Structures are given as C-alpha cells and as structure tokens.
Amino acid sequence: MRDLRWSVLTLVAAVLAVAALGCNLTGESAPIEIAVALTQTMSAVGTQAGQVQAPAATVAPPADTVPPADAATATPEPSPTTRPPVVHAVLPGNPGGATNFVSDRSSKTLANDRRAIGDDYTRNWLERPFSADAMEYQAHLDLTRVEYAVGAPWIYFTLFVEGLPPDGSQAIYAIEIDMDRDGRGDWLVAGEAPPDTNWTSEGVRAYRDTNNDVGATRPMLTDAPFTTGTGYDELVFDEGYAPDPDAAFVRRAPSGASEIEIAIKNSLIGQYGDFLWGAWTDEGVQNPAWADYHDRYTLAEAGSPANDSSNYPLKAVSKVDSTCRWGAGFIPDADDPGVCPVPPTPTPVPSKTQTRTPTATEIIIY
C-alpha cells in the first residue's frame, strides 16, 4: 500500500462533521516569469455527476514538519488493510495539443547557491523546491511549465519539472481548481509520483472544500496564523474507490520522464472549463486540510528561500512549488485572485501600416 498520509483530513474537519450531524447545521516579492498561451473560447459542457461523501479523517504532517503551536493534531485513523481491487472500465488517452499553459520560474541555475528568487509567500506563489535547513535542491519538485488540454470526457494537465522523481519519492503532483474565480480553491486533485507511463489511479486522491474556507479571510493573500480552517475537508476520490473508479489518473508522460500527466473526468468536477487552475508539487507539508499553507504558517515559521532574508533558510514550508493560475476556456480578468499577469489590451496607434491583431492561439511571453 502506497503512502496514505494525504488520504486523511484534520481532526477539526471530523469534529465539525460530528457537530453538524448532532445539530443539523450544515515574503518576499520577486518577479515571476510567466508564459501564457491565449485560449480559444470553449463552451462549458458536461453535467454534474454524483460524488461520494467520504468520511472525514485526520491528516498527519510529515515527521519533519512542525505545525504552529495551536494547530489541531491527532493520530491518523488506520486505513483498511485490504480492499477489493479497483476495476477500470475506461482509461485516458493522450492529452494532444495544449489549449493553454503557464510557465514557472526554475531554480535549477541557483541550486548550488541554495536559494531561489521567484518566491512570493504573501501572494501564495511559492518557489521552494529545496529541503528545510540544508536547502538541498529537489529537481523533481521544480515546476517549469504546466499545460492544460481537453479530450472528452477528460481534462488533462501536464506538469513539467526539472528532474525525474527519484525512486521511493513521496512527492505529490497536484492541480488546484477554483470553480467560481474567487481565489479559493474548490478542488485539489493530487497524485503520488507515478512509477511508469501507464495510467493509474493508485496514489490519486481528489479533495473538495465543502465550507469555502480555503484561502482564509483574504483569498491568495496571507492571513497567517490562521489555524482554525479545515481546508480541503472532503475526500471524494480515493485511489479509485468512488462511485466512478475512472474519475482521476496519473502517469509519467511517454514523451518525457520528467513530465507528469494528470487526467480528470469532467464529471468529477462537473464541467470542462470556466474555472481557474494552478499546479502544485509537494513533498514537504503534504496536508490538504491546511490549505492554504501561507495562511497556516507565518513567514518566520515557513522560512524563506532568499538568502538575503532574515527568514532564510526554509523551515516549515519547504519542498513545495506552485504556479500562478490561468483560465480553462476563457482569458481571466487581471483582478481574478492569483491569476497570472494578463496581457494588456492593445491601444490603437494611428499609422500608415495596419497593426496586426494577435490571434487567440498565439503565445505571449512576459
């Protein structure tokens, strides 16, 4: 059985669930290089499918992660020792051409300096592919690009990292989806480092935030220390154990061993587009119930990858990388929380030569 520490949610979530049944109640800033391919408008299709209500449970942090003093902790509930094998009726195909993508700053060239310059902890753009204290570079966590594509009934994401996940890696590769563009993640679909290029649901879990507290008081801006939230408090898909065992998969891309592909059935979240998405790698905190991490930990607790900072080196929030967000099926507004820099609207300039208008599929690099 693969590592299950992402399968369990916080004690706070369990207490809230019990209370509801009983009462019938319901940094530092640095420039980030962004490359965004403008998307063609797509119609949202698909219908909302049924989802499983999984029992709330407690998520335990890794042994080397120190939670805030007042954070709720509990011993994880034991998982079943045996479960019937998952039988898949259908597997994803190949993603095909990307509809859009985002690029993320690489820290590879700064690995020997044991530092990063693209981390903006205040705004939840994390560039922390280093271990705590020793600041050892983790190439398999260093995101450089993430692509989004659609091939009904699948939504595909390809995460490009600087290196292969090493044998025995417990890294998580995840997509966060904001359905209503309010800056609060609504879904987190996460897969453990896959062993090969075969699609698998093993190690794949999908979480949902049922009470809209991801993002704390100010979505995408730090509210630390915020220790009362329950984050992603519902486990909807657990390694294929769900009403639809084919709802989510992960694999290493056949085209490149350092590319991780995640496939999500649109019926899991209910639509193909019209949402914001971003990507994560995580082999440090690994606790979806504590999302967002920059709300849970102060900068002093989290540490900084900037070696000229008084908070250097990394501490509680290490071995993590994330991207800004972009729109699935639409071009976001500049004021959408967490969104990548939006291309400015061209200002017409009178001239004898007509200015060509970029097409919807051209790549604009900042």
Describe the overall structure.
The structure is a single chain. The chain is mainly β and 366 residues long. The protein has one domain. It is 7% helix and 21% strand. The chain is built from four helices and 15 strands. The strands form three sheets. Strands 3, 6, 7, 8, 9, 12, 13 and 14 form an eight-stranded antiparallel beta sheet that branches. A five-stranded antiparallel beta sheet has the order 2-4-5-11-10. A two-stranded antiparallel ribbon has the order 1-15. Strand 4 and strand 5 (154-161) form a beta hairpin. The longest helix is centred in the N-terminal third of the chain and has 13 residues, at 11-23. 47% of the residues are buried.
Domains counted in the coordinates: how many? Answer: 1
State the helical fraction.
under 10%
Quaternary: single chain
How much is the average pLDDT? 81
Summarize the main sheet.
8 strands, antiparallel
Shape: globular
In the predicted model, the low-confidence regions spanning at least 5 consecutive residues are 1-5, 7-76, 351-366
* SSE string: HEEEEEEEEEEEHEHHEEE
Structural class computed from helices and strand pairing: mainly beta
The radius of gyration computed from the alpha-carbon positions, rounded to a whole number of angstroms, is: 20 Å
- Annotation field: number of helices: 4
Strand content range: 15-25%
Distance between the termini: 44 Å
Number of strands: 15
